[in-house]
Amino acid sequence: MVKNSFISVISQEEKKENSGSVEFQVFSFTNKIRRLTLHLELHRKDYLSQRGLRKILGKRQRLLSYLSKKNKVRYKELISRLDIRESKTR
């Protein structure tokens, strides 16, 4: 697995300052999701990793819906910067 292929949109200074921000959490969940997706392409029957992926996807979805309710501009910017699709609203 190549770890250098993951996105590094947030600089090192921003990581130290804003590690609790919604954007940073969504960024780290996106990296974990991409890493687990690559792992599951090789190991299809790894059911514990599949469960972990579903949990992380749910957490990221909840954070994105929270951000879209609180600040649409930051939400749109984050979606475009991370290159993930827009979530469906109910």
Descriptive account of the structure:
The protein is mainly α and 90 residues long. The protein has a domain at 21-80: Helix Hairpins (Orthogonal Bundle). Helix content is 69%, strand content 0%. The chain has helices at 12-17, 22-42, 47-70, 72-82. Helix 2 (22-42) runs antiparallel to helix 3 and helix 3 (47-70) runs antiparallel to helix 4. The chain is elongated.
Spell out the key features of this protein:
mainly alpha, elongated, 90 residues, disordered N terminus
How would you summarize the topology of this molecule?
Layout: H1 12-17, H2 22-42, H3 47-70, H4 72-82
Helix pairs in contact: 2-3, 3-4
Short account of what is shown:
By secondary structure, the chain is mainly alpha-helical. It has 4 helices and no strands.
The biggest beta sheet is recorded as: none
Distance between the termini: 37 Å
* Poorly predicted runs of 5 or more residues: 1-5
**Tell me, what's the shape?**
elongated
The portion of residues assigned to helices is 55-70%
**SS content category:** mainly alpha
The CATH topology of the domain at 21-80 is given as: Helix Hairpins
What's the number of helices? Answer: 4
The overall strand count is 0
The top-level CATH class of the domain at 21-80 is: Mainly Alpha
Summarize the helix and strand pattern as letters. HHHH
Subcellular location: Plastid, Chloroplast
Family: Belongs to the universal ribosomal protein uS15 family.
InterPro entries: Ribosomal_uS15, Ribosomal_uS15_bac-type, uS15_NS1_RNA-bd_sf
Subunit structure: Part of the 30S ribosomal subunit.
